[in-house]
Amino acid sequence: MSDKMRLVTRSDFDGLVCAMILKECNLIEDIKFVHPKDVQDGKIELSNTDITTNLPYDQRVFMCFDHHESELTRNKEMKDRNNWHIDGHAKSAARVVYDYYKKEGYALEHISDEIMTAVDKGDSADFTEDEILNPKDWVLMNFLMDARTGLGRFHDFRISNYDLMMELIDYCVNHSIKEVLELPDVKERVDLYMEQSERFKAQLKEISHMDGKVIVVDQKAAGDTIYAGNRFMIYALYPEAEISVHVAWGFKKQNTAVMIGKSIINRSSKFNIGELCLEYGGGGHANAGTCQIDNDKIDSVLPEIISRINAG
């Protein structure tokens, strides 16, 4: 039996880079992509042969790497566990993984400074207005791999997102970003993203309204087709907003997802979003968070959340 581990992580750019690092260390042989809420709810089978990154802490795993401040609050009594490596100041989970294994003596010579800078930039949402409106290179790659961009709603790609992730784990190690974006399976996603860009902006304006300092985006009102586009576009379209609240159907419409984020254009808000989401059974960090609300409670809970933000 192999002594290698399974990586359990999110299907995004941070997850990709975490996988690249752990594969470079020759520590993993299998990868599973999951939703953080499913881990928090105990729906994912985990064991001491698993390494998790960018996910809620679960004491069953061999090692857990994270950078979400709300996890430190949610698991105060666990913070001294030797299988939990969390740095609330790190810009990405990949950075926590990278720093840990560097200290452990791994060379990580195939993990470039360029890709580490890109994953930190992406996971900390350190984008300019021009990068939001005209993404290129690693910024574009970051948007393509973010589930919230919505490319996953279009299922006529040649290969699945999972298969693409598995291909990219090896390919990104020794190819430039220009070469990565020219890969046929990446390029068809780039083409769709660019093709839907203007329709996405128009749709956003139709389903959004300002409420105090909050821009509320009701994705439920978008109908059957929600066009693909990056989640920061709303801040470029509404630069006066301090915080966005996206409301969307959860998995199979079983609940309603409320996704809250600070504007990366208007950075005046000091509100701690992660703490608010924690109160509603979710989590996050100071600048972004998510919670899942029962469908029969959303009409009373949403105004409460918006009011709390506006009062903060």
Automatic annotation (TrEMBL):
Signal peptide: none annotated. Coiled coil: none annotated. It comes from the Bacteria. Gene3D superfamilies: 3.10.310.30, inorganic pyrophosphatase (n-terminal core). This is Exopolyphosphatase-related protein. InterPro entries: DHH_sf (IPR038763), Nucleotide_metab_enz (IPR052968), UCP028235 (IPR016877).
